[in-house]
Design brief:
Shape: elongated
Distance between the termini: 82 Å
Strand order of the largest sheet: 4-3-2-1-5
Number of helices: 8
Structural class: alpha+beta
Number of domains: 2
Number of strands: 5
Length: 199
């Protein structure tokens, strides 16, 4: 069988009206099936839930599942997703000095330097990473915190708010002359200092 005969057979198949209708129905069913999974995944992701499981559920229960989660799936804040991390992750990503109750107390009448923390060492050991900015992006109600003064390469930037915290960079919004905010992506290793500005 040659190539021309194969194309002729497929052409004859698709020219029959009954076959065209069957193919159109199959294409429509597959499109709605895939759309259902994608829509369920999108709804879950916008509400800060894992999209994969909702994509699979949307494929398993097309049309009905996306409509159900559109109504019933609650919104989660960034703070809730950070709180959902395991204790082990929190131990690995602790930033800043230890809490006061974990510091050894200075003995009365003893050497007064024992148990005290050198403030110069705190500045050196503070790392500005992903967990540092996650805890400073929003408050417990999910509202954006700020503004911050971020020093990058000796130049100070005023960040009106932290837009997004990614694995290697933090995305901040700075005020521009036109009144609209401009976003900047700053790698963590380029950040020298970050302090909250109290106007």
């Amino acid at each position: 069988m040659d190539l021309q005969q194969i194309f002729q057979d497929y052409g004859d198949f698709f020219l029959e009206v009954d076959n065209q209708i069957a193919v159109a129905i199959c294409v429509a069913v597959v499109a709605v099936w895939v759309w259902s999974g994608c829509f369920a995944s999108s709804v879950a992701e916008t509400r800060l839930h894992g999209p994969l499981i909702h994509f699979i559920a949307g494929l398993a229960i097309p049309i009905v599942y996306p409509l159900i989660i559109l109504i019933a799936l609650p919104y989660r804040t960034v703070k809730e997703t950070v709180a959902a991390s395991t204790l082990e992750e929190m131990i690995e990503h602790v930033d800043g000095p230890p809490p006061a109750e974990m510091l050894p107390a200075a003995a009365i009448g003893g050497d007064s330097s024992i148990g005290l923390i050198d403030p110069d060492m705190l500045e050196v050991t503070t790392s500005f990473g992903e967990s540092y900015f996650k805890h400073r992006a929003v408050d417990s109600a999910g509202r954006a915190l700020g503004p911050y003064a971020i020093t990058v390469g000796g130049e100070e930037l005023r960040a009106e708010r932290i837009v997004e915290v990614l694995q290697n960079v933090v995305v901040i919004e700075i005020a521009s002359t036109g009144g609209e905010g401009q976003t900047l992506r700053i790698p963590y290793d380029k950040i020298d200092n970050c302090v909250e500005v109290h106007d």
